[in-house]
Amino acid sequence: MASIGIDLGKTNFHLVALNERGKVVVQKKFSRKQLLTDTANLPSSLIGMEACSGAHFLGAALRQQGHDARLMPAQFVKPFVKSHKNDFLDAEAIAEAVTRENMRFVPIKTDEQLDLQALHRVRDRLVQRRTAVINQIGGFLLERGIPFGKGPAQLRNHLAAILQDAATNLTPRLRALVQRLWVEWRQLEADLATATEEIEHIANEDAACQRLRAIPGVGPLVAAATVAAVGHGRAFRKGREFAAWLGRVPRQPSTGGKTHLLGISKRGNTYLRHMFIHGARAVVFRIRYDMGGLGLWVQRLLQRAAPSKVIVAVANKLARIAWAVLYRGEVYRPAPVAA
Question: Beta strands 12-18 and 46-50: pairing type?
Fold first, then answer.
């Protein structure tokens, strides 16, 4: 067998094997336990899978059995699907795509990366829930003629007094409802602080995170999210590929030898892209008085572009620097002050 493709499911897995001429020689359906039992009896083979939920676990298990397991983005496998779509045709397309030398593969994450990624996803969900609760409380109070300024600080500082003030235009039912939302808000704050503290603790102990934190605008959260997403960065050949994966480069529909650049693509890892945007915003705010290489570059950008565009450009720059630090295993060295 030249290659094997496995179409992953929650409980059922479809396997297709191709020979050297690309002809289907094996076509089977397995349960999860049956799949690992059958692959353990196969000789070392090239096995391809789409990068989806459960793929990293199965890829690591197949590598322990001696196979060359590789993960691929689903959008890169789709062009190999012939005619209609079913599970066996998907597995056949995976088996054909994995043999391509120019295919882009997804590194199999370690257990540590998966744990760190899970922490970030839980933290992101807590942030979204907290924002929803704050907006709901503010909306209920505004309907009763109690407005608040932008941001949660004023609402947090005055909400307890409003609930205790009997003169406010709040019915007993709404007062009890807002009180429950206030309790939920404080619990979300505590859970969010716990998740953030655990992520920062991991970032303080990890060597790669420590190197990333030397970059301006890259704190423990951004560093830990980057390591959880890309590890050592070997999946990308250069920093621009990493920035493109984050969606920090323009979309390009060029044709006829003419270059056409559109807006920022915003593709790839949305969470990590937002983290780099927040870091870039901090850099633009603080570095305008820095006369070093990066600070001078930001100042020149601010003279000819809007601040929002400068923030995107700085996020692109930070992403490329972060990739170089991970890929080369070196410490960030800022450029010297211009003469």
Answer: unpaired
